[in-house]
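I would like you to sit down with the record closing this message with an eye to the fold:
=====
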Amino acid sequence: MSTPRSLPPLNALRAFEATARLGSVTAAAEELSVTHGAVSRQIRALEAHFATTLFDRAGRGLVLTRHGRRLHAGVGDAFTALSESCHGLAAEIEGAPFTLACPGSLLARWLIPRLDRLQRALPELRLNVFASEGGLDPGRDDVSASLAFISPPWPAGMRVIELAEETIGAVATPTITAPLEGRPPAALFDATLLDTTSRPQAWPQWAAAMGLDDEQLARARREGQSFEHLYYLLEAALAGLGMAIAPRLVIAGELASGRLIAPWGFVDTGARLCLQMPRESAERGGEQLAQWLREELATS
């Protein structure tokens, strides 16, 4: 018998784990691309190593004994961790894409127009982007980082890099804002209010900063028009349907061109545009992406 601290052969443990998980020597042999006899021999060798029975027969299948269950509890987790480590290393060596999640409106109106510059500046990053609302779910392993407006406290276990403050303001086309020029913020209620269900707190935040009446605002919102997403809200504002509430960064292009006007300016919401990522993503190009974003935001 082996000494108590010695480990059995890896192939024997692989055969045992597959058989225990699948409940069949035949199924384990198919998964491992070996013969039925090879799996049986490995299991017998493992039972000899521990001097105990690991399986009992149950009809045409196999069930774990008490000792078998104890061994499988650790071996299964170990092989899962080993597989994840090997796949992760292979992906890193092969240069897996850096996948960036970003809210749809920010992606369409700010990031996409700059993607060509980003890819020229960081060609080794192999960046993939997709629209996704909110922050990064730490449980996801298919997303390298998330670019989003979030408020503290920051999520635990994540690398969070603050890039810019979020400011929001009431905006509309020049045709709508011209009669409001020079008037106090309460003149807002002379216009139709456009709202979005994805950011219900935006109008109250801005109105509170301007000292507007809560009940008057609530009535104006009920009488106005609501849209599901910020993207549709901004399209409605650009079409001249009313006064929208929007983050300055998302509409920077429209403000610069004069297509939208913010007659009373913008207020800080307390949220910040952040790049969130696991530590390994920061090492794999996240820090370089954050630096590029800082430089680009400085010119926005």
The chain has a mean pLDDT of 88.
